[in-house]
Amino acid sequence: MGSSAPQNSLEWIMLFLDKYGVSFLKGAALTLEIAVISTLIGCVIGFMVGIVQTIELGNSDPLWKRLILKIVNLFLSVYVEVFRGTPMMVQAMVIYYGSDTLFRLNLDPIAASFIVVSINTGAYMAETVRGGIQSINAGQIEAAKALGLRHYSTMLFVILPQALLNILPQIGNNLIINIKDTSVLNVISCSELFFTTSSVVGTYYRYFEPFLIACAIYLFMTFTLSRLLRLMEKKLQGPRSYQLATDFMDDTYGNGSSVIDMKKGFGGRN
Amino acid sequence: MKAEAMKNQDGSDIKRRANEWVEREPILEIQHLGKAFGDHQVLLDIDFKTYPRDVICIIGASGSGKSTLLRCINMLETPSSGLVLHKGKSVPATGVHTADYRSKVGMVFQQFNLFSNLTVLDNCMLGLRKVLKLSREEAKARSIQYLMKVGMAPYINAKPHQLSGGQQQRVAIARALSMEPEVLLFDEPTSALDPEMVGEVLDVMRTLAKEGLTMIIVTHEMAFARDVSTRTVFMDRGVIVEDDRPEVLFTRPREERTKEFLTRFMAH
Ligand SMILES: Nc1ncnc2c1ncn2[C@@H]1O[C@H](COP(=O)(O)OP(=O)(O)OP(=O)(O)O)[C@@H](O)[C@H]1O
Ligand SMILES: [Mg+2]
Question: Is residue B229 a contact partner of residue B218, using CB atoms and an 8 Å limit?
Fold first, then answer.
């Protein structure tokens, strides 16, 4: 190649990688950082909102409790509707410039990006979590109640673990979507991958090659992450088979039918 | 007649037993219990008592309110009227006291309702750890003890969906027994099972009855009710029609409706 101008796309790509490889990587790293952290924060927000939205108070609960819950739920549903009903690009503009105009708060673009993506993801996750909780079989809750578990333990040990497992694919989806959608943050000059790519374009006025590189990096990130998530899901679902506890196997208990130890008296509290 | 004969033989013994009877307090007492869903009156003025070691089988046609009664007893449904007394104290519909009461009144469901996210062992341990606040070691030892009793100890590491229906129901029974309840309620524990698995569950329940566990069992297994119960209750359209010893209720029922139900049932 030498120092002469690149003759074809491949040579252009080599040149961009050579000169701006580090910039691309930095952009990609920021994209990944914003997507991963904001998805996590979004999940936390989503779980909190979803849990509050599924609290059921009956007529036996005090009026003030029911009133507060009504008001809180009103706010939460407005939040969910607004952030699901508007484009993230517009949300970014409103929050970034609005924080300055309304509150004289000079957010830097990266901080604003984290906030926008987290809140946006939270709104989507809230709906997912609500659905996940409501899809749990009522029998599970009744069984917990019948054991004497309080609402909070039932939630923590029975309902949420099951809901989490159900919505794990959805969380993965959100992460993948966020990796791609952080590209809209270029409108507030957040130096993620898309923004970095645009700046590279600016110096040579070549569009195709830099964006082809960006494309490859996006694809690499989403593909790798979706495989990782698939693995994690498998892991969380637990082993397909189980280990028999052979210490407890003998002729009395082994084979299913007549299995009861008649010698042991019932230890109830009669 | 029989009592007369016994009195002649040994009057003092009868008297002693009668005194014992008076001293034996009911664990549960249902008073004028009613339940309506909207306009639909499902239970009407239900009265009965459960004494220690009673095995009460509740029979009756589909829709007669058997499940609803059982669910009112442990407050999974809030009664519309009447009281449930536990050792003489009225049980509230919600709150800390309700949860505490439920820990003493176990329930086994038709659909097993094992916690699908937990292993067999953890299913049994959850209530012991979080409600009875036992240490991990104590909870584990006790869970295994009751899992052995139902023959499911080798399966402690299995998840519910990896087990057959009969096995799941036996685990559900062990989970309830681990709490060492004063009374155990069963709502058609064998109705969701394949026929070949009914036996293993009924065997477990027979043993529990023999050992003196107090139980209230809603069932369509008439032979089981006749053999095992100390009292059989026949319900129809939300009321208790007849409540008697099984030898009486199954062979010479007093009420016409009981007779009809039994002949209809036996015809199947
Ligand atoms: N949550 C509910 N809302 C409205 N009606 C209900 C509810 N639960 C039960 N019912 C009605 O109450 C009546 C009694 O139902 P229940 O389940 O207690 O009957 P059952 O004797 O247990 O019948 P089965 O043998 O079929 O289990 C039925 O007519 C049923 O439709
Ligand atoms: Mg029923």
Answer: no
The 10s digit of each residue's pLDDT in B151-177 is 999 999 999 999 999 999 999 999 999
Which residues are CB-neighbours of A48 under 8 A, at least 6 positions away?
none
**Architecture, CATH, for domain A27-238:** Orthogonal Bundle (1.10)
The arrangement of strands across the sheet holding B40-50 comes to B40-50, B28-37, B81-86, B89-90
Give dist(CA B204, CA A234) in Å, integer: 36
Distance from CA of B195 to the nearest CA of A (A): 13
A236 part of contact set with chain B, CB < 8 Å: no
* Cα of B70 from ligand 2 centre, angstroms: 9
DSSP-based three-state secondary structure for B212: coil
Greatest mean pLDDT range, A53-57, A97-101, B228-232: B228-232
Reply yes or no on whether the pLDDT at A66 is more than 70: yes
CA B65, B66, B69, B75 dihedral sign is negative
Q: Quick: pLDDT tens for B84-131.
A: 999 999 999 888 899 999 999 999 999 999 999 999 999 999 999 999
Query: pTM for the whole thing?
Result: 0.83
Q: Does A62 touch chain B (CB under 8 A)?
A: no
Give the pLDDT confidence of B194-208 residue by residue, as tens digits: 999 999 999 999 999
Closest ligand 1 atom, residue B77 Cα: 1
Query: What CA–CA distance (Å, rounded) separates A188 from A172?
Result: 26
Nearest CA to ligand 1 atom 25: B62
Question: Is residue A136 helix, strand or coil?
Answer: coil
Residue A114's CB is within 10 A of a number of other CB atoms, namely 17
- Rounded distance between C-alpha atoms, residue B267 and residue A264, angstroms: 39
pLDDT at residue B7 greater than cutoff 50? no
Residues with CB under 6 A from ligand 1: B 37, 40, 42, 60, 62-68
Q: Is A161 on the interface with B (CB under 8 A)?
A: yes
Distance CA A216, CA A36 (A): 19
What is the ipTM for the molecules in this complex? 0.88
Binary contact (A257, B200; C-beta < 8 A)? yes
Neighbours of ion ligand 2 (CB under 5 A): B 67
Out of B44, B68, B186, mutate this one to test ligand 1's pocket (max ligand atoms within 8 Å of CB): namely B68
Lowest mean pLDDT among A126-130, B17-21, B66-70, B262-266: B17-21
Q: From the CB of residue A255, how many other CB atoms can be counted at a distance below 10 Å?
A: 10
Listed by start position, the domains of chain A span 27-238, 240-270
Q: 3-class SS at A262?
A: coil
CA dist B32 → A9, A246, B69, B195 (Å): 88, 51, 12, 37
